[in-house]
Amino acid sequence: MAQMPKRVKHRKSQRGRIKGDATRGNRVVHGDFGLQSTQGGWIAAATIEAGRIAGTQYMRGEGRLYVRMFPHKPITSIPLETRMGKGKGEPEYWAAVVKPGTVLFEVSGVSEAAAKMCFARLAAKMPVRVRMVRRRAI
Amino acid sequence: MAETFQVEPRLPRGKRFARRERQAGKVPAVLYGHGQEVLPLSLDGAAVLAAVRHGARLVELTGAVQESAFIREVQWDTFGTEVLHVDFSRVSADEQIEVTLPVEMKGTAPGVKDGGVVQQPLHELTIECPAGVIPEKLLININHLALGQVLTVAAVDLPAGAKLVTPADIVVVQCQLPVEQEDLEAGPGATAEPELIGRKAEDEEAAEE
To answer: Which of A6-10, B104-108, B204-208 comes out lowest in average pLDDT?
Structure first.
């Protein structure tokens, strides 16, 4: 089941713009290796879930996968064959807003080769370009 | 053997000049500590990157200054590929300093043969030790880690003369049976909406009326 917030202040949000690079959430924190976005974009809750399932199924109980993003943004849309106007559409899904540099997933407790294979499967699900990064000492 | 950096004085100061330094393949840096003057410096970017990647912390500065220094902080770009700035603090080899170091596991846990998975919840810890013996990383031996056991900060091998700053009872490594990451509980459905903050439920409003 895809994630979404438990409580929100407003049902709908404006589109917004993704400006600049990530200055937070751009380091590997929990695991040994991370999957870092090199593009900005919206990642739907269902896509995050698809990535999580792909990653956990590959690891089969070895190591641990961490999801470092959360779909906070409600995305609305207007139904097909509807005349324009009559207000903003209804919320359709939830998405995580990702800036270039954001670490999307992390893994720990597996070898680098296994992490690479895991991320390759996971990256195929993502709508943004990604690269593998490792934990930094300082 | 400490890494040696050839440094030059950095003048004038300011973000424009720092940016030009970086474009020329250099890294702006600053040297401070021991109650002496703060010196803006510049040094070769490739040398800094190589030293930092190899975990160097205590370095020798030559050129504009002749001192041993401790790499206090490194600023990275968004993608963690380039060093933007380095903070050096003056140290003498026998001075006690606080330093945060990565912790790595050493050995193979027997608990893995019993079906366990080794997890490391704590990746770095802070110690106080003489500047001359700062290791690249701290090691924790997991050769006796059985299934269901944990190793705390107290089990980490420390260099001579070092003492822990991080509380000793924090878990560093544990060996547990793998837990299936539970499916996020099936909610009321894809069309369900979250609760609105500050808006009362309709039945509550009706009850008030």
So the answer is: B204-208
Complete DSSP assignment for B55-88: T--EEEEEES--EEEEEEEEEE-TTS-SEEEEEE
3-state secondary structure B94-142: CCEEEEEEEEEEECCCHHHCCCCEEECCCCEEEEEEEHHHCCCCEEEEC
- Verify whether the Cβ–Cβ distance B196 to A1 is below 8 Å: no
Euclidean distance between CA atoms B30 and A133, whole angstroms: 28
CB contact under 8 Å between A137 and B193, yes or no, is: no
The Cα A114–Cα A131 span in angstroms is 15
The answer to whether B207 touches B150, Cβ cutoff 8 Å, is no
Task: Give the minimum alpha-carbon distance from A8 to chain B in angstroms, rounded to a whole number.
Answer: 5
The Cβ-side half-sphere exposure at B165, using a 13 Å CA radius, reads 12
Chain A residues with CB under 8 Å of a chain B CB are 1-11, 21-23, 26-27, 36, 38, 49, 52, 56, 61-65, 91, 93, 100-101, 108-109, 133, 135-138
Q: What pLDDT, in 10s, does the model give residues B82-109?
A: 999 999 999 987 889 999 999 999 998 8
Chain B residue numbers touching A101 (CB-CB < 8 A):
78-79
The model's pTM: 0.87
**pLDDT score at B112:** 85
Handedness of CA B184, B186, B192, B195 (dihedral sign): negative
CATH homologous superfamily of A33-81+97-134 equals Ribosomal protein L16/L10 (3.90.1170.10)
Contacts of A138 in chain B (CB under 8 A): 52, 57, 71, 73-74
- Domain edges within chain A: 33-81+97-134
What are B116-138's pLDDT values in tens digits? 888 888 998 999 998 888 888 89
